[in-house]
Amino acid sequence: MVRLALEGLGARYGKRSIISDATTPWIEGGSLTALVGANAAGKSTLFRRIAGQMGGSGSVRLSGADQNDLRYMPQDTAMTAALTVYESVILALKQGASGWRLSAQELASVDHVLHRFGIAHLATRQLPELSGGQRQSVSIAQTLVTRPKIVLMDEPTSALDLYRQFEILEALRRYAVDTGAVVVLALHDLNQVMRSCATTIALAQGRIVAAGDTLEVLTPDLIRQLYGIDSRVERCSRGSPMMIVDGPSSSAHAAGHC
Amino acid sequence: MASIANDAPQHAGTYRGLVARRLMVLVGLGVLLLLSVAVDVSLGPARYALPDVLKTLVAPNTVDLQMRVVVWDIRMPMAILAVTVGASLSLAGAQMQTILANPLASPFTLGLSAAASFGAALAMVLGVALFPAAVGLMVPINAFAAAMIASLLIFGLSTMRGVTVETIVLLGIALVFTFNAALALLQYFASEQALAAVVFWTMGSLTKATWGKVAITAAILAICTPLFARRAWALTAIRLGETRAAAMGVPVKRLRLETLVLVSLLAAVPVSFVGTIGFIGIVGPHVARLLLGEDQRFFLPGAMLSGAVILSATSVLSKALLPGAVLPIGIITALVGVPFFMALILTKGRKAW
């Protein structure tokens, strides 16, 4: 069983503290975990700190996996390289290798991940020609081609249309189920979170204010604390929980929002 | 989710086809280079027929001494130096563009060539040696020392905290202006004779080629190329952007510094031997990128080959344009290269840079 827990994790840029004392219970693999919080709450920094791209206090505890099994997908940025989609995924697979040869097995795993995330038809396209949503799907394939056991994805669905959001989240959920991996996604759409993610971590001003079962974490109180938004969580006619937004919170100083 | 189907994998085959095509392009470039070198060796003030020249190359003992000397001691070093210098400058430009994420980066635009010209002029105008050296070697050693100083400045800056690739490129451009101004100042005070020498040097020329220079440039290529080759996957990944590369486990900062050191050597030595041939460092990599893409397994040899082909072909042109005279190669590279380069960029119309 793959598990991940944070213990008093901190991170700072120069003298400015971005993350302080981030602690979570053990997060179990095999399902999706959401990381929610307002803009500038420190989601990307927390990911980079967990991924070992920046130092700081505290520790990341892993069980059933080590740091080499961890892959981090940064937020979407333009790609100007003269490479095809297929080549860019090969590249992600071969990092760390010094040899130039590709085995049939390696090519098969590239094919597999492209199919799995619905972008096989883009294989021969050049990266700079891709739309934002296509690029995001390619990033996901790059991240998962090595079949990592710990996956951190920064807003993997922000550029996707509604249909593709469902498709990708379902594919990610299946990936977690199939591999038993811990998959943490920074997401903004709380209804997507409630639908897809079993566990949720809530971040406000660099501190983890709640972590645990999604429906227990995402209460109207917490949503007000995170986003300064009044909302209700109700069961829709099909029985699944839905967040209904009433509007900006009347209390003037909502935490974490600027 | 209909579109996420488990179709049988099919793109591995397409990819293998792409790899085969790229290998063919590399072989094509290699053949082109051989042809160009052969023509280069056959051309010169003394008119020899191509078969005779080839005979001299294959069996030097069967021809007369004069022909042997002209072909082996004058033309061959020039022709081969065009190849090693072209390959070095193009490879240097390719890796500068890669690590600085800038299509304009090259030994020329980052101030290495300007610094080398200034260093050479110091020797020619004032007789100042930046490094104690024999008088005969003062010009190339000065040029090399100045180019290394320029790249050390850039290197030092890039190790500083919070310095982005954009800052490095801007500093490079500032260096170009600084060294050009210093060079102009030297020229202003120079004697007529020294001025002529400086102007001629900055035009770039292969005419002072020797086997020794060929050996040194080839040795540096032989050292740097395998070091780049071992980092092929990481260097390719860096082109996906710094954060993406770092997320894939590439030690971005270390790779950038290591590459800068190698690139400085690759650029400074040829420039000190042949003067300013700036254009190759930009065009060579772009030609390779358009033909082969940026997978370094193909881009690395491709950039070297295309730089070598371009400089070798330019060497041919510099002899062929005015019968009996050898025009400075730096001038020809730019005059003939630019229109060709523009045509290539505008017709291919890829979005990659």
Automatic annotation (TrEMBL), chain A:
Record-linked InterPro entries: AAA+_ATPase, ABC_transporter-like_ATP-bd, P-loop_NTPase
Record-linked CDD domains: ABC_Iron-Siderophores_B12_Hemin
Any GO MF annotation of the entry: ATP binding
Residue ranges constituting the ABC transporter domain according to the UniProt record: 4-230
Extent of the signal sequence: none
Top-level taxon in the UniProt lineage: Bacteria
Name of the protein: ABC transporter ATP-binding protein
The organism of origin for this protein: Paracoccus onchidii
Primary role: Part of the ABC transporter complex HmuTUV involved in hemin import. Responsible for energy coupling to the transport system.
Coiled-coil segments on the chain, per record: none
Keywords, ordered alphabetically: ATP-binding, Nucleotide-binding, Translocase, Transport
PANTHER family on file: HEMIN IMPORT ATP-BINDING PROTEIN HMUV
PROSITE patterns, alphabetized: ABC_TRANSPORTER_2
Automatic annotation (TrEMBL), chain B:
A Pfam entry, by short name: FecCD
Membrane-spanning ranges: 23-43, 74-96, 108-131, 137-157, 169-190, 210-229, 260-283, 298-318, 325-346
Subcellular location: Cell membrane
Annotated membrane topology: Multi-pass membrane protein
Keyword Secreted: no
Record keyword Acyltransferase present: no
Domain of life of the source: Bacteria
CDD domains, per database record: TM_ABC_iron-siderophores_like (cd06550)
UniProt keyword terms in alphabetical order: Cell membrane, Membrane, Transmembrane, Transmembrane helix, Transport
Family statement drawn from the similarity comment of this UniProt entry: Belongs to the binding-protein-dependent transport system permease family. FecCD subfamily.
Protein name: Iron ABC transporter permease
Organism, scientific name: Paracoccus onchidii
